[in-house]
Amino acid sequence: MNKRTLHWSYLNIKDIPMDLYLYEDLEELYLKENYIAAIPKWFLNLTTLKFIHLAGNNLTKLPEEIYLLENLEFLDLSQNQLTTLPETLCLLTNLEHLNVSTNELEMLPNDINSLRRLETLNISKNHLKRLPLHLCELSRLSNLNVSDNVDIWHIPERIAYMPSLQMFSAERCSLIYLPVALAKFIGYLRIFNNGAVTHIPVIYEKFYQSFYETIAKVTNIVMSHENLFWVLEKETNTKLLLPIGTRRVFRVPSKENQVSLYDDCLKSLEYLNRLTPIYNNPALNYILPEKFMVDHIRNGPIARCTFLQCSNPLFTSYYFMVVKRRGSTSRRLFTCYFCTQYCANEWLCDNHKKYYTIDWQLYDN
């Protein structure tokens, strides 16, 4: 039979019918909201398929041979009971859209960065504890949704700063601070519904709406306080947690060129990493003089300079400001991070009519 699209959703079927073999040119298959518990081996011979919609079934695992569907471009497995994804899923090199939201996943496949054509990834409403750093290698990824993973408390800068990212959602996680970097072309952002966040990097300001201030619930986070860096702003005496990895912060104004030579070396290596990715190279352990340098290159910068014309990577030390909107009833605190005092002064010159600065001091936890 010559039919490219088949709609068998909402039919209460428990097994994928073998009648599919009759459709030799089948490309799109809708089987959502049924009771299908397994994908049979014979199904993997339907290699003409480009679009599979299996949302709302009873799948608990995928066959290891899933890679045989070599022409697959769209795969929706949301609202099932999947606990793991096979590594062979990452061999679907034509895959552009993957939705595995509302499952029971605790981790993603190690080789997910092999899905080089992936444009949309929805992993919301699972049990993920962290985002693998190599997600940043998905150079075409434009839409990423990680919302409702309540154990995720940190978004790596390398992921938030992916060049092609246009839509990003991380609502109702357990974020303790927002990543101090944002992809330049993001037009849709949902990240403010995280109750433990006490301040917003000013680069998020255009996405921030006052109704987010009604979010009063503070997430209970169990984690070590070792190596956390806090400051206390003096207007409302609020403790602000700075990005993990911060060692020193400097006021504005203060002496110029206080950022360490160590950070300058890391910045140079980060520029090299842009040209030739080296952050995952095991040889770094032998090339670089100290192991902390290796960790910083692998994990990426902890922030980016707030002055957009600069956007230099920041690693352990930076100039820091706390600001609030002028003439606004909003209680929200915004924060700024700069690589030099020059960048801080330029940003202040451009924005002094919109914001005023708030004094702060180091907080010894």
UniProtKB/TrEMBL annotation:
Keywords: Leucine-rich repeat, Repeat. One of its GO terms (cellular component) is cytoplasm. The gene is LOC119641387. This is Leucine-rich repeat and death domain-containing protein 1. The lineage of its organism: Eukaryota, Metazoa, Ecdysozoa, Arthropoda, Hexapoda. InterPro entries: Leu-rich_rpt, Leu-rich_rpt_typical-subtyp, LRR_dom_sf, LRR_domain-containing. Pfam families: LRR_8. It comes from Glossina fuscipes. It comes from the Eukaryota.
